[in-house]
Amino acid sequence: MGSTTTTSCPTTREDPASNNSLAAENDEDEWDKRIRRTGCFKENERVLICHADTGDWRKCVREMAAFR
C-alpha cells in the first residue's frame, strides 16, 4: 500500500518535486499530533526549546512546571 500526501491549501501548479518536499516539511509527526491533542503543545515547545538552548533540563524548571 502506498501512502498519499495531501496539502491543506493547494496553490498554483508547481514542480512535483518541490511539492513533495514542501509536503514533507508540513507533515506533523505522530508525537506532535499527540501533544497537540492534549492542549499543551505550546508548553511542550517551550520545554524543548529551553533544553535545546541550555542543554540542561535543570535550567528549564519553570518551563517544565508550566508543562505539567
UniProtKB/TrEMBL annotation:
Superkingdom field: Eukaryota
GO cellular component terms listed in the entry, alphabetical order: mitochondrial intermembrane space
GO terms under biological process: mitochondrial respiratory chain complex IV assembly
Biased composition (Low complexity): 1-11
Region (Disordered): 1-29
Name of the protein: Uncharacterized protein
Species lineage: Eukaryota, Fungi, Fungi incertae sedis, Zoopagomycota, Kickxellomycotina
